[in-house]
Write a structure and sequence with these properties.
two-stranded antiparallel ribbon; mainly alpha; single chain; 193 residues
């Protein structure tokens, strides 16, 4: 139930994605070495014998020359560089997939724990209500003279313990919410809290 855009903001996923992009670019650079290179060279000069004819029509000379170079025999070095770049790229893809899978697992575990804690809170609220009813019945029976005061004390202890458990579960829910924020890299809002 978590949008993938939230997961993509995690620092480890961002780093793996950038690493993947770098290795993809390296594959492109390695493949570029198979293409010929074209370069243009040029020069401009003057052949004047005096300062007054320095920029005259016939004293200016220039040249432009294209140069095409293509390395055909390089001992298979380009093939090896390309193969190495492809292997690095494939490894980066595997690393990225593992990073994403770990992120999904962390988020799933955090959300499952959070949901279980919310369910436990709901159940504990019912326990608090029932222990309060039990306490009230013990007080009524004591006032009627039908039971000992120790039953009232036991009822109060049970009620207080159930309230303490409820507070602990609510604290655990907040801790689990923080775990969800950490697993997502931030930016998530709880609907129930």
């Amino acid at each position: 139930g978590v949008p993938s855009d939230l997961l993509r903001r995690r620092p480890d996923i961002v780093a793996a994605e950038m690493q993947l992009a770098q290795y993809a670019a390296n594959v492109g650079v390695a493949k570029k070495d198979f293409l010929p290179t074209l370069s243009l060279t040029g020069s401009i000069g003057t052949s004047a014998h005096g300062v007054d004819a320095l920029f005259g029509d016939h004293s200016l000379s220039y040249s432009v020359a294209p140069q095409l170079s293509w390395t055909i025999f390089d001992g298979m070095a380009r093939n090896y560089r390309t193969a190495e770049a492809k292997l690095q790229f494939e490894t980066a893809i595997d690393d990225y997939n593992v990073t994403v899978m770990n992120a999904v697992k962390e988020v799933d575990n955090a959300m499952i724990e959070y949901n279980y804690t919310l369910e436990a809170i709901d159940l504990q609220k019912k326990v608090v209500e029932e222990s309060k009813k039990s306490l009230d019945m013990s007080v009524d029976l004591y006032k009627s003279g039908l039971t000992a005061f120790s039953n009232v004390v036991d009822g109060q202890m049970n009620w207080i313990e159930s309230q303490n458990t409820l507070v602990e579960l609510e604290g655990k829910a907040l801790t689990n919410l923080v775990s969800i924020y950490q697993a997502l890299g931030g930016g998530w809002q709880a609907a129930g809290m």
